[in-house]
Amino acid sequence: MKTFKYIYSIVGxxxxxxxxxxxxxxxGQDIPFDYPEQPEVNIYEGQFxxxxxxxxxNDKVGGINATVVGTPALDxxxxxxxxxxxxxxxITIPATSFGAEFTATFWYxxxxxxxxxxxxxxxxxxxxxxxxxxxNRTSGFRLFREGGADSxxxxxxxxxxxxxxxxxxxxxATLKSGxxxxxxxxxxxxxxxxxxxxxxxxxxxxxxxxxKNCPVMTIGSGAPYFTGWSHLYEGSLIDELRLYNxxxxxxxxxxxxxxxxxx
Length: 263
Hints:
Layout (H helix, E strand, L loop, with lengths): L1 H26 L19 E5 L15 E3 L3 E4 L4 E4 L5 E5 L7 E8 L6 E7 L16 E9 L3 E10 L3 E5 L5 E3 L5 E7 L4 E5 L2 E6 L10 E4 L17 E8 L5 H8 L6
Antiparallel strand pairs: 1-16, 2-5, 3-4, 4-16, 5-15, 6-12, 6-16, 7-8, 7-15, 8-9, 9-10, 9-11, 12-13, 13-14
């Protein structure tokens, strides 16, 4: 009996030693398990959404899932992939939580076909108008382009709840056909809206945005609520779209556009 007790004791001590060795290895972080790497995402002050379009149309920060209409695509972008529109196609996200201050920034590669398009739009329905004639601009915003085969002007329209204001930068807001990627930003606060291209202010207006009856924000088209002037699908590329619940300053916009210059 004593022999068996000695054997049991030796076996028990050996198992205890192995257990202690494993514990000390864990404490030393010598763990033979490969944890999946998390994607690195830069989040700036006030940012609540980030659409990289590298893998899908969903937000990587706030978990906003886009609703896809038609057959948009993902194509080579400024970084990784980018959103590329198609006829009768766009994506939408809920706009019900947008606040008194708002900013959107993104990279944009112009395609002048079609010759006009809604880029990012958020407005109210016009129930009395047909699906191709909706043009209620009393609230929300409409960022769009129009022009010809050689160049396009980027414009912003903002509604205050009863009427709308225009931000038209003319030549300062004009992109040429075949131009390189442009960085576009627009901001809205309690007193004014501003439009920026490549870090420079190109237009502003004294207006306070209202989100009255604005259920969704559309990316890649004027549809479904800004169709009356045929600002429909966007054949250009949209990449690195970020949304913020604050009106960014010009310095902040330039920092996001060229972070390497501000490290």
